[in-house]
Design goal:
With 133 residues, the chain is an alpha+beta fold. The chain has a single domain, classed as Nuclear Transport Factor 2, Chain: A (Roll), CATH 3.10.450.50. It has 3 helices and 6 strands. A 6-stranded mixed beta sheet has the order 2-1-6-5-4-3. Strand 4 (84-95) and strand 5 (99-110) form a beta hairpin.
C-alpha cells in the first residue's frame, strides 16, 4: 500500500516523538515546523493546550522512557476539502509494563514549507484503553 502524504506525516511525526522520548534525538525541530502557529491539542483527558504548552510538555518528556514504541494504525481520511484535511488514526504507546491506546483526530492545512506539505492545526485524542488494568 502506498502511503499518502497525510499518512506519512502522521507516521513520521510520531516516530519523532518516540525518538525524542527515548532520548535518541535531542531537539524538536521536526515538531516545531510541523505545528501551525494556532495549533491546539485536546488530550485524552479533555485538557486543552496551545502550541506553546504542547511544545513545553513535549520538552519535559525528553529521554523520560527507557522502553517505548509509538505506533499509529487504522489511518482514515475523514475529509479533504481545499486546503483542509481531517484524518483519524489509533495511536498506541507500548511501554515495558503496559500498552495504551487512543483514537486521534487531526486537522491539517496544506503548506508548501511544512514536512509532507501539511501543518497540524488541531489534534483531539480520546482514550480507548489506558493500559492501567
Amino acid at each position: 500500500m502506498v502511503e499518502s502524504n497525510w499518512q506519512r506525516e502522521i507516521i513520521e511525526l510520531h516516530e519523532t516523538f518516540e525518538a525524542y522520548f527515548l532520548g535518541a534525538i535531542s531537539d524538536l525541530d521536526r515538531v516545531d515546523v510541523a505545528l501551525a502557529e494556532d495549533f491546539t491539542f485536546v488530550g485524552p483527558d479533555a485538557n486543552v493546550a496551545s502550541r506553546a504548552a504542547t511544545l513545553a510538555a513535549l520538552e519535559a518528556g525528553h529521554a523520560h522512557a527507557s522502553s517505548l514504541e509509538i505506533r499509529t494504525v487504522d489511518h482514515q481520511l475523514v475529509l479533504e476539502d481545499g486546503d483542509v484535511l481531517i484524518a483519524e488514526y489509533i495511536e498506541e504507546h507500548v511501554l515495558a509494563d503496559r500498552t495504551n491506546r487512543r483514537r486521534s483526530t487531526v486537522i491539517f492545512s496544506t503548506s508548501t514549507t511544512a514536512p509532507n506539505g501539511l501543518v497540524w492545526r488541531r489534534v483531539h485524542e480520546t482514550w480507548i484503553d489506558r493500559g492501567l488494568d
